[in-house]
Amino acid sequence: MITNKKAFINGKILTMDEKHPEVEAMLVEDDKVKKIGGSKEILSIAEDAEIIDLMGKRILPGMNDSHMHLLSYGLSIKKVDLRQCKSLQDIREEILGYLETEEEKYFGDWIVGHGWNEENFSLPEYPIAEFLDDICKDRPIYISRACYHMAAVNHKALQLAGIDNTTQSPEGGKIDKYEDGKPTGVLRENALLMAYNLISISDEVEVLKKLISDSVEDGLRVGLTSIQSDDFGHVKDYNCVVEAYKSLEEENALNVRINLQMLVNKSTLEKIIASNIKTGTGSDLLKYGPLKVLADGSLGGRTAALQEAYEDDKENNGILIHSRSYLRDLLQTAAAADIQLAVHAIGDRTMVELLDLYEEIYLHDDTKRPRLIHCQITNKEILEKMAKLKVIADIQPSFVMTDMKMVENRVGKERAKDSYIWKSMLNQGVMVAGSSDAPIESFNPFWGIYAAVTRRNLDEKPEGGWYPEECLAIMEAIRLYTVGSSYATFEEEIKGKLKEGYLADFIVLDKDIMEINPLEIKDLEVEATYVGGECVYKIDR
Asked: What pLDDT was estimated at residue 106?
């Protein structure tokens, strides 16, 4: 059998292995690291190998995003981009500009946008139905807030969704209304699904493959070699998503490792179980991951479930999307079938409920690695219980860059001190994995590492960092996106490090992340990305 051998020499290879933290060279055979060591040592055993001189560049294990939405990222490129809007007038101009250049109605007759955030407006206000009618009243408009847990629609969309003065808010959602009962056009959590589920989104496999491939290419440019993606909720039939990924794999066109997070209801979960699918089913390139569940909303939309009311909305404690009995039944069903659990939990009330359920479901078995995604509003007791139950925290360091300006408004200074406390998590012994939640934030892992280390925004504010006692050391931050994310998928013995027997997934940086000013981390560029020893991206200089 012919083997593919490559010797990478003269580099500064950060292995993430405690025994040999940094080496000069490594021999890659087929898709795995065969040997690490000095350049002379590797060259001495590199007969018939291709020699690649790293020219002193810094090498890291490939970046692994533990929670994002790859398909949603691809779809977001087709939508009206409202992320830079500073006012309602900006929203108006962006939508009108989109309509002037619209080449194809990708979402049928619907006008779909994403990313507006009233916290960025000089006068915080929502784009209500009347405002959107003034832009276009003949076609339905649906524009999601930056958090994706809240949306604004026009009256055409309300009409199509059957929402009027008499419509009650669904369980786990809220239809915002005026005092006279008239809908404002703002929909939260499950209420937004009444409109969103009407939007025409193609589930043709070839269309999905193109969206995925384009998104993967963007990920490779920033050093992502593994992506744990929550995609099932974006199409009517999740099988179309699976088929698209499998087809790309069969065509040798899937250049990143994918772990599928399964956001499904109880009946679909039972069908998945009946198909003998469990966490880890698949190949090194494409695997089924955990059951994904949404348990509460977002802090920005004031729908994250809190133990005490919002500081800026005293009558509101947020929304628990599911009843406790439904959650217990869903999670127990998955756990009994050896499917890992990963639940979206932002508020402290949600986290307390989920930790109680995890303890009940797993009893004294601490080997199942249940996960809580986001973990934003916490406290000492919550962290202690997470450590005790060995619950993984999937955090999004980039969130702090955009959220810091509104956290104290939402929860007050006392609770803000217990928010986004990643250093405290590590000190408590919680296993933490790094992610982006893209397209909510950029999936550039170096923005995440920068945010974790500096706790500043991209303008390098505030000086010293936001609650700087929670800043991570550079190695702690890199570990989030390598060892931590690999542990979350039970793959810490094959990826996340560069050592003998591990998958040869790694990246070449333009500057040395270990030596530059931490403020420069956000500006790092990936010069090359390798998956299984093959170069799948090289920067065009």
From this structure: 86
User: What b/e sequence results for 48-73 when a residue is b if at least 16 CB atoms lie within 10 Å of its CB, and e otherwise?
Assistant: ebeebebeebbbbbbbbbbbbbbbbb
Domain range 205-488, CATH architecture: Alpha-Beta Barrel (3.20)
pLDDT in tens, 98-151: 999 887 788 999 999 999 999 999 888 999 999 999 999 999 999 999 999 999
- Summarised one tens digit per residue, pLDDT across range 164-189 is 999 999 999 999 999 999 999 999 99
> Which tokens belong to 288?
């089924």
Q: For the residues of 367-381, what is the DSSP string, one character each?
A: -S--EEEE--B--HH
What is the fold, at CATH topology level, of the domain defined by 107-196? Diaminopimelate Epimerase; Chain A, domain 1 (3.10.310)
Query: What is the architecture of the domain spanning 5-56+499-538?
Result: Roll (2.30)
**CA-wise closest residue to 200 among 73, 110, 79:** 110
* CA atoms within 13 Å, Cβ hemisphere of 368: 25
Q: If DSSP states are collapsed to H, E and C, what string results for 46-100? A: CCCCEEEECCCCEEEECEEEEEECHHHHHHHCCCEECCCCCCHHHHHHHHHHHHH
pTM of the model: 0.96
3-state helix, strand, coil in the chain (%, to 5): 35, 25, 40
**What secondary structure letter does DSSP report for 472?**
P
- Dist CA 345 CA 297 (whole Å): 8
Q: Residue 258 is inside which H or E element, if any?
A: strand 257-263
Quote the tokens at residue 454.
Answer: 């500096």
Domain boundaries, the chain: 5-56+499-538, 107-196, 205-488
For 488-521, how does the pLDDT look when each residue is reduced to its tens digit (9 = 90+)? 999 999 999 999 999 999 999 999 999 999 999 9
Q: What is the mean pLDDT of residues 32-57?
A: 97
- Is the pLDDT score of 1 beyond 50? no
